[in-house]
Write a structure and sequence with these properties.
Strand order of the largest sheet: 3-2-1-4-5-6-7
Order of helices and strands: EHEEHEHEHHEHEEHEHEHEHEEHHH
Radius of gyration: 21 Å
Distance between the termini: 7 Å
Helix content: 25-40%
Number of strands: 13
Shape: globular
Structural class: alpha/beta
Number of helices: 13
Strand content: 15-25%
Largest sheet: 7 strands, parallel
């Protein structure tokens, strides 16, 4: 530890738009005299959010480009150099290799579990032996060699850490007090109900479900609506083609990334979150912080429900979601928005509150 500052090395795949990445960036931006946060992007490629970190705080070497075995040797040399006081690994099961290297270098290592992938494994692999073996071996290594095991939720912890204890540390987000006057939304029956979803365009976020939902709502003809999906990812072309094929390109849009997430949420009527699995769901946390009505998958951990006044949980059934949006769902008014905002600001999902817990963990290791 140099000059009484704890140097934390966060290891991620790439600093692209995502919940974990946003948490690290927000954490690094907060004023602190104790912690300095550096990110190692093991893909070796520049991420779309690299520039959001302080200059020199994103490393692209060592990386996977010349093979994982060489990466592990070079990673060991990096942490052995003494430049970093704590390694914080965010790579799910692959973190077991980082744990072994850090343990050999005698550097404290934290493993974080940010997702509950049991549903995905069941869908993809069933009970195949190789998947069960990988989960068993990684959990065993984490139990024996990780200095601290952290989970974004109880479900995420139970998924990755099958042996031993773990600490739940909710990944908070930066929140603001809502302005005294909120922008006008729907002015009359001829205005579209604006629905919004935020997340990477990946299988996990399940945006294909929203296209099917748009098709069902359009077929019924009872709602005048538009769905805007903010995010980028490998499935963009497939999703746009699916929307075109189902003739809903006029009512579901994919505008790309936005740096104005909270403002987009404030301007919308409904937040949609149909994820197949989540460790927590930071976009859902942000939506609650502005008091918008939220319709979410029942796969989202229950502990993410803070502002319950604005939440409707449903199984991933298109007809049920359409029914809720047409009838039982009431759009949040300004009074409800302020109540929800107040609850979220006081919760440990506010990063100003949650940072106290994570920084105390870093400090205890040094």
């Amino acid at each position: 530890m140099k000059d009484n500052v704890i140097n934390v090395l966060h290891v991620v795949s790439k600093l692209d738009a995502g919940g974990v990445e946003k948490w690290i960036i927000d954490l690094a931006k907060l004023p602190t005299v104790r912690c300095n946060h550096v990110v190692l992007s093991v893909s070796g490629s520049k991420g779309v959010w690299d520039e959001k970190m302080q200059k020199g705080s994103v490393l692209h070497h060592p990386n996977f480009k010349k093979g994982k075995l060489k990466f592990i040797r070079e990673f060991y040399a990096l942490v052995k150099s003494g430049e970093y006081d704590v390694v914080h690994a965010h790579l799910y099961q692959f973190s077991m290799f980082l744990v072994v290297a850090a343990a050999l270098a005698r550097v404290p290592v934290i493993v974080s579990s940010h997702n509950d992938k049991k549903a995905l494994r069941s869908k993809r692999y069933g009970s195949r032996l190789i998947e069960s073996l990988r989960a068993y071996v990684s959990s065993f290594i984490f139990d024996r060699l990780a200095t601290v095991r952290i989970a974004a939720s109880v479900d995420a912890g139970n998924d990755l850490f099958r042996f031993g204890d773990f600490v739940v540390v909710h990944c908070g987000v930066l929140m603001n007090t809502l302005p005294a006057s909120l922008p006008a939304k729907r002015k009359g029956p001829d205005d579209k109900i604006k629905m919004i979803s935020i997340g990477s365009l990946t299988e996990q976020k399940n945006h294909a479900f929203l296209i099917e939902l748009a098709s069902e709502l359009k077929r019924r003809g009872n709602l005048f609506f538009v769905i805007e999906v903010y995010g980028e990812g490998a499935l963009r072309q497939n999703l746009e083609q699916m929307a075109m094929k189902m003739s809903v390109s006029d009512c579901i849009r994919f505008p790309g990334l936005t740096d104005s997430v909270l403002q987009k949420l404030i301007e919308a009527d409904v937040f949609l979150f149909p994820s197949i699995y989540e460790g927590l769901g930071l976009a859902f946390i942000e939506a609650q912080s502005v008091g918008i009505s939220c319709v979410v998958s029942d796969a989202i951990p229950l502990e993410a429900d803070v502002a319950k006044e604005c939440i409707t949980r449903l199984p991933l059934n298109v007809s049920e979601w359409a029914d809720a949006l047409e009838s039982s769902l009431s759009l949040a008014g300004p009074q409800q928005a302020y109540v929800c905002n107040s609850k979220m600001l006081a919760s440990d999902f506010n990063i100003l509150n949650s940072k106290i817990k994570i920084e105390s963990i870093y400090e205890a290791l040094c």
